[in-house]
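Standup notes
- DV: blocked on the single-chain target, sequence here:
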Amino acid sequence: MAATRSEGVWVDDETIIYHADDLRNVWSIKASTGERQKLFNWSAVTPDGFSGHFALSPDRTRLLSNPQNGVWSPTQDLFICDLHGQNVRTVWEDAHNDIEDFNALWLPGDRFVWCRSGLPKPDQREMAIVTCRLGDTNYEVLTDWQGLKWPLAASPDGSQILFLKEIPPRGGGMELAIMNADGTQDRKFSDRTFVLVANSSGIGARWFARAAARR
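- DV (later): unblocked, structure below
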């Protein structure tokens, strides 16, 4: 089994929750001392483990993620659990085998924004950013399906979303874009373009942290 990147979220000023790169155990660690404590194992929550990306709820008491489908790619499902892997609830699920849902963000009001990826043609993959609330049976599309896009981070109040967008033609690079959480004012954020690399989701968290510090 190939290892993947680790990922973590700040719960408070002192505590970070993260998973190891084997996508099994979830740990908490004290930022000041480095003291670790095992919280739970993902296999107790979902049999095949999870996708490697998780998000923290605005009240910082629950985690949002996707289960795996057994071959190390996300399924069509999104689920939530508490910080000890208990009280599991499904946010979204469907039966389309050619659709994947991933890189979900948790906004205030139990609203979720994520990337929905499909194969409209055998040689073409398209993506859109979609949203729903806990308990919804339908989602709303916030972007069209032109070019590669997925959310990186939400502003602290949940009103804006930073996301990656591919510059056509495919392989022409990536740019950062920002839009309101209701899908309006989709706009280019920076003139700088870059090549997509692993762990690009860290860009969004750093950008909103810097923006907050400038206020």
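- Follow-up: The first strand starts at residue 7 and ends at 10.
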